[in-house]
Amino acid sequence: MAEPINVVVTGAAGQIAYSLLYQLAAGSVFGPEQPINLRLLDIPPMMKVLDGVVMELQDLALPLLREILPTAEPAKAFENVAAAFLVGAMPRKEGMERKDLLAANVDIFKVQGEALDKHARKDVKVLVVGNPANTNALICSHYAPSIPKENFTAMTRLDQNRAQAAIAARIGVQVDKVKNVIIWGNHSSTQYPDVAHATVALSSGVKPVPSEINDDEWLNSTFVETIQKRGAAVIAARKMSSAMSAAKAAGDHMRDWWFGTKTGEWVSMGVVSDGSYGIPKDVVFSFPVAIKNKQYEIVQNLSISNFAKSKLDVTSKELEEERAEANNVLKK
Ligand code: NAX
């Protein structure tokens, strides 16, 4: 059996981590042959809660889970980590403006970027879940200059999973019959869920999703808005934000990064833009990516309609604004 790898989860006492940690310990992300040492980072007031999480992890009695280290010190949490789930972030409080939220998170992701730079493995794979996830990933990467930019990603997999499930329900097929749904842009209400290149496997063969649904009005408005606002709908019903589905999506994202995607299939990830599809460079933008040997590549040459282009413009403009606000905070 392989040597254990160190995996850090931040916000480890929170609700997403509570579902994520089981998946990690059970081997459903890094595989059944890969033992792990868990590094659990949270803030000092949460250490007692974290002790309870540690007890539960011990009581899982899972053989792949070796050491468990609960800590409030980034230097310890990031020591020699091969994978990082950055879940912890400052939540928006009543009366807080977006600017204030961004400012609080810039500070957190600066500290964690510096800790990754100093203490993590240089090939560490970083997944930022905490919001605003795309811009947090950008800040984190900026403060970890010794780690390649490609190693920092933001999660839009939950949006992808939501979109895939909504399309499967509309057509009336199992969710795994639907492939290559894309989430473009920011993990926010400006994201663009796009099925122009998606396919569905039916008993009559593999068909394009748009012609199978054959209702542009539904696809361009109802579907797009439902996915954009799905997080808010969960909060309205549950009085808490998505946690089980967010944790599952974080596992999906990292597993695909670790083990790769199947030929001809792609997944969506927020990655540092290289200018593909005319998106400004140096924002973390969700693109379709194909993954091999733990390296992703942005899927190229997909046709983009004028409608899609207008949606991509809106979400990239929002990301440029977030980047400008973050830079303002950092200059102060
Ligand atoms: P919780 O409030 O349950 O947990 C967050 C945890 O982070 C808390 O235990 C808190 O003490 C900790 N924390 C705060 N600052 C920290 C720091 N500097 N270092 C380490 N830990 C710190 O939130 P939860 O529901 O788990 O959500 C976590 C984050 O995920 C939020 O920012 C949320 O907005 C974001 N989400 C992102 C999603 C995505 O698709 N990218 C979807 C789900 C979720 O909304």
TrEMBL record:
Gene3D superfamilies: Lactate dehydrogenase/glycoside hydrolase, family 4, C-terminal (3.90.110.10), NAD(P)-binding Rossmann-like Domain (3.40.50.720). Belongs to the LDH/MDH superfamily. MDH type 2 family. It comes from the Eukaryota. NAD(+) binds at D42, N105, V129, G130, N131. This is Malate dehydrogenase. GO terms for biological process: malate metabolic process; tricarboxylic acid cycle. GO terms for molecular function: L-malate dehydrogenase (NAD+) activity. It comes from Cardiocondyla obscurior. It holds the Pfam family Ldh_1_C. InterPro entries: L-lactate/malate_DH, Lactate/malate_DH_C, Lactate/malate_DH_N, Lactate_DH/Glyco_Ohase_4_C, Malate_DH_AS, Malate_DH_NAD-dep_euk, Malate_DH_type2, NAD(P)-bd_dom_sf. Substrate binds at R92, R98, N131, R162. The active site is at H187. It catalyses: (S)-malate + NAD(+) = oxaloacetate + NADH + H(+). Keywords: NAD, Oxidoreductase, Tricarboxylic acid cycle. Its EC number is 1.1.1.37. PROSITE patterns: MDH (PS00068). Residues 6-152 form the Lactate/malate dehydrogenase N-terminal domain.
